[in-house]
TrEMBL record:
Coiled-coil intervals, chain numbering: none
Gene3D superfamilies with a match to the protein in the record: 3.40.50.2300
Transmembrane segments: none
Name of the protein in its database record: ABC transporter substrate-binding protein
Keyword Glycoprotein: no
Source organism of this protein record: Halobellus litoreus
Domain Leucine-binding protein, residue spans: 32-378
Record-linked InterPro entries: BCAA_transport, Leu-bd, Peripla_BP_I, TAT_signal
Amino acid sequence: MLQRRSFLKAAGVAGITSAAGCLGGGGGGSDSVTIGAVMALSGPFARTGEENRRGLEVAQEYLNNTILDEEFELIIEDGESTPEASIQAARTLVEDEDVDAIIGPVSSGNSIAVMQYIKEDGQVPHLLTTASSVEARENPENCNEYAFFIWPSNRHLAPTGTQFIQELPNHIDRDIDPSSVYYVSQDYALGQNGLQLVEEAMSEVGGEVAGSTLVPLGETDWSTYISEISNSDADVVTGVLTWGAAAQLIPQANSFGLPEEKVMMFNSGKPIGQFAASTMANEVTVDGWFGTHFYNPSLDTEVNNEFKSLYNNLDSNLLPNSTAGASFELMRALATAIEAAGGTGTDDIITELEGLEWDSVFGPIQFREEDHQAALNFFGGRRVEAGDATEVEVLAEYPDVIPDARCSL
């Protein structure tokens, strides 16, 4: 049997799914496969959880619902956007459904709660979808051999965004000082941790964070906060937003004329991501909005084109996006690891996931052996009109921006 990395390299773009036919049954048994998923299908993170679920549906179709030459079972439990419900969902999947691995949940707080359960009791491979805080990856209390991360952390986002901000004067027809920024996010782990890391990144380039606004989760009226932002002396506004926050901030900021006063540059997809293009295309093409991201929907590869085609067959009013792409790729990676292991043994799956390289919807990607973080590339850009739709205009590319591992397994 071919070694896993040699096989994937030889398989090229088809790579990860082609493993199904060639690696099945290669030692370790032919167990039927049951995969569990903890998705936030209700509560404040439901929009993200719904897209994670759609990504799993696309992956099932892509894999022909087959692992080890048999149909596999996918069981989804609602984590309800809370740590307590997420733990209970994971417990149900492991102890009642006897799943072989878990995908999810969304948000850092919910993910860390499940990580603790998996580390102490569940002890199955745990592939996290959109957790962004560094706490999950760096705190020794959370680091464990079961967890794999496909989503970049704030420590990846802050330096990349800061670098792009320094280059913005080359891409905008107005005089701005990129050495001073104002930070905006929501008042929970993601936003709080992001503020600290942006402060560090700006300091490293000789700049500063002139002020910040942290908005309560679930806030719908941003007018007071927009006034705070407008009163700042900084020319550039930055931060990181959930989809729900972006849906509130972007149109309201436009109605106040904020992008005419400030350059708005947010990390991790907003406002250049597919969600914004799906729900407020006219809003995100307003001059003054920029973003950094790791998913370019225009990437012309076999897997990305297939992902987009399958996603568009679903009952969704959104466009193929990075959140669905994350769970799609986690399912593909897990299927490949199980195929390579020839069974569902936890240690065998983890061994196959460590160092796994493949061509993904995000481009080339790898789970680093030392900390199980996916290494992928970023870009900075903006949304522009393109006929009856919009497209991403890539202005700068940032390969190899994933920082060194800070979690020793």
